[in-house]
Recover the amino acids of this structure.
């Protein structure tokens, strides 16, 4: 070896301790030695600084050092030292020590025993590294992972990993719960995972896995799984691609249950379809109503005109009047049937708005009784009314329709010379379930249990009606639907030979003095003033037959003047220029409907208050 080479080796040897000390200092490594003979501890500068110990060349007594150990960790420290005496291998230990600032520090120590030539233990030498920050970071990461895991479990989200190249996959427990089972012992089988997929969706999953191996784009799809009990659930899958340090591609994703969302979407689509069908049905019913009423209007109108013309006292005129009366009666029955069927269809489709406002019963009953009075007189029936001084929540127009239906049935089924009674009482007063019971009783032949069960079914006529051919069998079904739409109920009781009773249980109106019978009764009509001019009626109608009927009827009144407009545009223009006292309006017009005509009439000051009959 040359002199220069030897000199370089000497320099390197002299610099090595300094370099090692620098490395230890920069690495934050504490060096220590436990002299078992003197039972004292010696530390390098880094260790003393961490423990807050002043430099002592003679070392630190063991008991003073052990006082720096956390009391809970002291037994483990003693046990580790005892175990190390019987081993020549390094021994590691993590324990807490009080630091220079008084806080507890997590310290990793590694020791090895030193022995003399005879194998006796002279001491321990070791290193110590402060891992407090590392343990804090690990704890924070663990807490964060547990928080995420808890959140995903609470939300029902399962997580998974998949390596397309090897086909290996990892599923957490929630992934299996989403398939209705607990996590099996062996989860490595791809076939086992595929077994739970709905047979119709397995090809979708295979294509998704193949696509995952070809590109690194995010994936989203939904598929069905079949639980062991047979129920089918919808799951959503979302994943992203990642590469590890070795460049291995893997997918990290999540599954969650979307069955309720899919069901809600299906229900929404069904509602939209149903709404579309309902609107189409409404348009059909409106058109059907119009098309049916137009010829019926002609039949009834001309029958009335012909009857008015038959004034002769001879038998032939009387015969023609009877025949015309049959035509008019049949036309009215057909019109009533059309009205009932259309009302029933609209009610079932939720297309009839029902108001809920206070309605006094007494005047409502009086109006309905007035309409059935001619039939009652023809059958020599007695109609008795009881206490009707009650107010209920309902729709006055529809409640009158219900009353008229029930009363008409009671009158028709009663025997000649019999009676019909109507009264009301409060059931369950002063309770939340209180109801006003409106009761209609008749002295008819009564009904069997089988007939009662069919009473409110469409096209199920009462036996007396069936025998006489009266009624359509739809009215009571409409009445029941109307009553239920008002939050009320209707029922009947009867015995063969003992008559029948129909009870309508209505929600009582809030107590108000304004709803007394006297306040609710219509005011007496004043005597009409002598006409000083002919009153103007405008008829907006595109059907010439309907227009002809109204022309002939109005022509018989010298105090009335009629004008006819064939469409909405000309009708509105004529109303603004002619200013009629009354407008008759057809709802189906060639240019726009009656609703638009009403809107334009109400928007114009000249016709805003003009009464319109549609």
């Amino acid at each position: 070896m040359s002199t220069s080479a030897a000199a370089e080796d000497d320099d390197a040897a002299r610099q090595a301790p300094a370099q090692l000390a620098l490395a230890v200092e920069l690495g934050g490594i504490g060096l220590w030695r436990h002299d078992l003979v003197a039972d004292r501890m010696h530390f390098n500068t880094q260790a003393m600084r961490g423990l807050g110990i002043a430099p002592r060349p003679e070392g630190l007594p063991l008991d003073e050092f052990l006082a720096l150990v956390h009391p809970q960790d002291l037994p483990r420290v003693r046990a580790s030292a005892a175990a190390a005496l019987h081993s020549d291998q390094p021994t590691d230990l993590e324990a807490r020590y009080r630091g220079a600032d008084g806080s507890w520090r997590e310290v990793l120590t590694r020791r090895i025993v030193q022995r003399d030539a005879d194998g006796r233990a002279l001491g321990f030498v070791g290193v110590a590294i402060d891992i407090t920050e590392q343990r804090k970071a690990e704890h924070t990461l663990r807490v964060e992972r547990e928080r995420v895991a808890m959140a995903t479990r609470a939300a029902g989200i399962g997580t998974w990993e998949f390596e397309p190249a090897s086909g290996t996959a990892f599923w957490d427990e929630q992934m299996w719960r989403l398939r209705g089972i607990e996590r099996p012992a062996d989860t490595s089988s791809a076939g086992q995972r595929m077994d739970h997929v709905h047979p119709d969706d397995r090809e979708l999953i295979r294509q998704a896995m193949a696509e995952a191996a070809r590109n690194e784009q995010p994936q989203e799809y939904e598929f069905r799984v079949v639980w062991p009990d047979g129920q089918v659930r919808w799951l959503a899958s979302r994943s992203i691609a990642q590469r590890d340090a070795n460049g291995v591609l893997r997918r990290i994703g999540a599954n969650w249950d979307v069955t309720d969302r899919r069901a809600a979407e299906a229900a929404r689509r069904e509602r939209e379809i149903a709404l579309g069908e309902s609107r189409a049905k409404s348009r059909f019913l409106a058109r059907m109503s119009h098309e049916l009423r137009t010829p019926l209007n002609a039949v009834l109108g001309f029958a009335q005109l012909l009857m008015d013309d038959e004034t002769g006292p001879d038998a032939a005129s009387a015969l023609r009047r009877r025949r015309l009366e049959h035509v008019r009666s049949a036309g009215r029955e057909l019109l009533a049937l059309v009205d009932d069927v259309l009302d029933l269809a609209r009610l079932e489709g939720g297309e009839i708005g029902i108001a809920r406002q206070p309605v006094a019963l007494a005047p409502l009953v009086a109006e309905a009784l007035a309409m059935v009075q001619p039939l009652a007189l023809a059958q020599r029936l007695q109609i008795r009314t009881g206490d009707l001084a009650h107010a209920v929540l309902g729709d006055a127009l529809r409640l009158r329709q219900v009353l008229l239906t029930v009363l008409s049935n009671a009158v028709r089924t009663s025997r000649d010379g019999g009676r019909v009674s109507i009264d009301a009482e409060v059931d369950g007063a002063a309770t939340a379930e209180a109801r006003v019971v409106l009761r209609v009783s008749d002295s008819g032949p009564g009904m069997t249990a089988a007939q009662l069960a069919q009473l409110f079914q469409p096209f199920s006529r009462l036996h007396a009606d069936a025998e006489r051919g009266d009624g359509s069998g739809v009215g009571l079904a409409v009445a029941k639907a109307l009553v239920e739409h008002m939050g009320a109920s209707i029922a009947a009781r009867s015995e063969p030979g003992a008559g029948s009773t129909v009870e309508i249980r209505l929600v009582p109106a809030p107590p108000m003095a304004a709803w007394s019978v006297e306040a609710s009764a219509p005011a007496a009509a004043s005597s009409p003033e002598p006409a000083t001019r002919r009153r103007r009626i405008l008829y907006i109608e595109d059907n010439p037959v309907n227009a002809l009927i109204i022309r002939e009827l109005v022509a018989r009144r010298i105090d009335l003047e009629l004008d006819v407009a064939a469409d909405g545009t000309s009708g509105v223009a004529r109303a603004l220029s002619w200013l009629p006292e009354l407008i008759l309006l057809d709802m189906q017009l060639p240019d726009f409907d009656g609703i638009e005509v009403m809107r334009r009439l109400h928007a114009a000051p000249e016709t805003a208050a003009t009464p319109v009959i549609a």
